[in-house]
Design a protein that fits this description.
The protein has helices spanning 25-35, 45-50, 60-75; strands spanning 15-23, 81-88, 101-112, 117-126, 129-140. It is an alpha+beta fold and 142 residues long.
Length: 142
Amino acid sequence: MTAKISYADVEVGTELPAQTFPVTRATLVQYAGASGDFNPIHWNERFAKEVGLPDVIAHGMFTMAEAIRVVTDWVGDPGAVVEYGVRFTRPVVVADDDKGAVIEVSGKVAAKLDHNTVRVDLTATSAGQKVLGASRAVVRLA
């Protein structure tokens, strides 16, 4: 696959289509099975509260993976992401109800770099709180 977005067609400030990602307790169980991360803070409410959390929280790597989907969906090729990093600022708290939580992600081209690459800065929030800080990806465009 190759990127579907052309470097020549992108300017600093170009906004990527924002997305929302629902997260339920079932989502966390599925992710735990896929990742092998069965830490009880991600599925056991009693344990999560005993260690000082408000409730069960989403896996940090799950949150990070959902956020980069805004970039990979925009560029059309997950392999176009050449660098990605975040700082975890707040947990995504997932209630035990039919709604769970929602992660809202937006992105903007922050810089045009060499070799047809751009830096995309992402903003990820849940329940009105920023859950990822310094969330940046370098992406190679067509």
